[in-house]
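Hey,
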Amino acid sequence: MSKSYSVNVENNEEIITEATMALIPKYELGTGNLHCTILGQYGVKEVKQNPLAIVKESCIFYGSDFKGSINSARKILRKQRNLPIMVSLTFKLCMIPLSSPMKEDCSWIALRHVEETFSNRENSIILFSNGQQLNVNISWKVLEDRINKAGRLISTYDYRYEKMKDLYITSMVAEGREDDLFSEQESLYRVQPSIDMG
């Protein structure tokens, strides 16, 4: 049983969220203006921005920028092309381009929602976390390669975070400040007694 969605065109600026599954370019009939169809976990929406503008605006919203995200991915995924973009490290929002990420009409998929991929002759089918399927004009091998690159990007950021956390704990212990370290952790869980002013 397939789901059907109503589509509304909106003018406000859109941001990638945890519910965003894909950004699909759509040229408006008559004018040829490039817009975006956003496939979300709970529905489909059309907005006047193009997919690249949404990715760039989302990077800024979450505290980085598109160019910095590309440069960071280049350092991690050396000698690779069509790099995934880490839109938000905090929420682990990683978007995968299906063509050149510099093109305004590039389609993007969210790594967190890709459940499975299938070959469909020269194309591929993506099965998303909500059961929806998307046919994409990219070979299965290339698609899987891009998904793997995105997974490597996220795992590298996770590794760096854990390494920095371990260095912080080690430095606290080396400085003889274990009591400070444990009191910081305990204060997060300490319940303040209520004061009865009655």
